[in-house]
Amino acid sequence: SSLALAASARLDARERSSRRPRRSRARATRCAAAKPHVVICPGLGNAGTDYDAFAALLRARGHGATIADVRRVDWLRNAAGAATPAYWRGTLRPKPTVNWYLDALANACEEATRDDDDVALILCAHSAGGWLARVFIDEHASEAIVGRIARLVTLGSPMKPAPRDVPGVVDQTRGILTYVDENCRSASELTCDLGIECVCVAGKYARGAETLDGVASAGAFALGQGYKQVCGRAAVDGDGITPVESALMDGARHVVLDDVYHTPLGADDAAGRAWYGSPAAFERWVPLALDPS
């Protein structure tokens, strides 16, 4: 049956993943007193400048912080993927479509390590930056940079592909997230193979609704339709974009925060819409995700 074939293909992909050569876990000697340098990986549609205030909070806490140089207009480059048959089949792969982003992340890591031979790196990845960081680690970064990465922290990142068997659900990544799930290292493999810890931070800002029950429920219904495109269900909790269940990788440490919104765009602490990098939310997850475990 088609289900059996799909299951077999997924198993084959997992077996290929387990047979990948393991990279050396050797790392440069690090100064124990130095805090890791945080490299911020912007989310879909965001510009690096959206994270300036977040980076300032990290620096005030004693971390170096470098933001990958991404402009909002850069995301239009992804449209090139639509010119390929794989896009329309829903089997698109990350490369070469997102090479521009991976290059920006590589440049940020090089900048972060240029003046300090001992500094460890934490990739702090927002939204789509989470799965892009996984591609970066497995398929793009140099071995020297991978050896510097101590931790991957994701903020509201959809880390699981949308289900294929739910009517009305269309994979927004056109197959890329399925590729990442099947071919890139899992959280457990990142830790076992490369010594990279994984921490997934998810927000519970609002719950979606499956059905429309009058004007009062219109917002929850609209929100639920968005959640459904990500996880296949509407009546779930999420940060306004990413359902909690989609943001938590198996094998990673999980941090779930109440009242945290997905994006810095439109965030407003005073209105009760703090995003992950807002002062109101920052100290609720940073000690759990960035400090030594």
Automatic annotation (TrEMBL):
Specify residue ranges for compositional bias: Basic residues.
19-28
Please list where the region (Disordered) is annotated: 1-28
- Composition bias, kind Low complexity: at what positions? 1-10
Q: Which InterPro entries match?
A: AB_hydrolase_fold
| Protein name in the entry | GPI inositol-deacylase
Q: Which organism is it from?
A: Ostreococcus sp. 'lucimarinus'
